[in-house]
Amino acid sequence: MSPRLPMKIGILTFHFAENYGAVMQAYALMAHLRSLGHDAELIDYRPRYMTHGGRLRIPTSRRNLKINAQVLFIKWANLKTKLLSRGFADQFTEFQRQHLILSERTLTSHDELRHVADQYHAVVCGSDQIWNPPLRYGLDPAYFAAFAPPSVRKIAYAASFGRSDIEEEYHPRLRELLLQMDDLGVREQSGIDLIDRLTGRKAILTPDPTFLLNDYSRIMGTAESEEFLFAYVLRGQGLIGELIHKFGEKLKIKAVTPFNPHQRWKLDAEQRTLSPGDWLAHIRRARFVVTNSFHGTVFCILFQKPFVAIGLDGKKRSLSGRLTALLEQMGLMDRWLDPSGETTVDSILERAIDWDAVMPRISELRASGNRFLQETLARIDA
Question: At 235, is the pLDDT very low, low, confident or very high (cuts 50, 70, 90)?
Answer without folding.
Answer: confident
